[in-house]
């Protein structure tokens, strides 16, 4: 079973794939803040999805690409990664 993707991993992916530095604690304490507030655009989010698909060797799906908040994104991705395991 895949371990869930955490705010820490998401922050690292945001920095590595989109060049956006975000404190994972801030994301966790502001779960309804949007990616836009963290200065992550849709292309950056696509890069993060692509990296997760490569890392876990399975498709993540288009729904994750349309998530507006880190919490919604993590819930969606983790649900997909644990489905059918």
TrEMBL record:
<feature type="domain" description="Carrier">
    <location>
        <begin position="4"/>
        <end position="85"/>
    </location>
</feature>
<dbReference type="InterPro" id="IPR036736">
    <property type="entry name" value="ACP-like_sf"/>
</dbReference>
<dbReference type="Pfam" id="PF00550">
    <property type="entry name" value="PP-binding"/>
</dbReference>
<protein>
    <submittedName>
        <fullName>Acyl carrier protein</fullName>
    </submittedName>
</protein>
<dbReference type="InterPro" id="IPR009081">
    <property type="entry name" value="PP-bd_ACP"/>
</dbReference>
């Amino acid at each position: 079973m895949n371990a869930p993707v955490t705010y820490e991993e998401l922050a690292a992916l945001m920095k590595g794939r989109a060049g956006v530095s975000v404190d994972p604690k801030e994301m966790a304490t502001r779960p309804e803040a949007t990616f836009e507030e963290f200065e992550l655009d849709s292309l950056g989010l696509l890069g993060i999805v692509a990296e997760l698909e490569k890392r876990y060797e399975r498709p993540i799906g288009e729904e994750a690409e349309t998530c507006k908040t880190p919490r919604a994104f993590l819930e969606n991705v983790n649900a997909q990664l644990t489905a059918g395991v």
